[in-house]
Write a structure and sequence with these properties.
By secondary structure, the chain is mainly α. It has one domain. Helices cover about 60% and strands about 0% of the residues. It contains three helices and no strands. The longest helix is centred in the middle third of the chain and has 23 residues.
Length: about 60
């Protein structure tokens, strides 16, 4: 008797299916949060964070 036979007959396939459903659900939520029009400004600001030097902003100019 091989280990693959034991694992195949143990009835553990449901765990893989549940994990796949949870992954797809989480992936859909992440896609919705990233591409939702309401979050566009926040995502653009987050995209500029690595380029921001954190220095003072000259008068008359905004950070966005």
């Amino acid at each position: 008797m091989k280990l693959s036979d034991v694992m195949g007959h143990a009835g553990l396939a449901i765990y893989a299916e549940v994990a796949m459903i949870l992954f797809l659900f989480a992936f859909a939520i992440i896609l919705w949060r990233v591409f939702a029009p309401a979050n566009r400004r926040a995502m653009e600001e987050a995209g500029r964070l690595p380029l921001d030097d954190g220095g003072p902003v000259p008068p008359g100019r905004s950070r966005s």
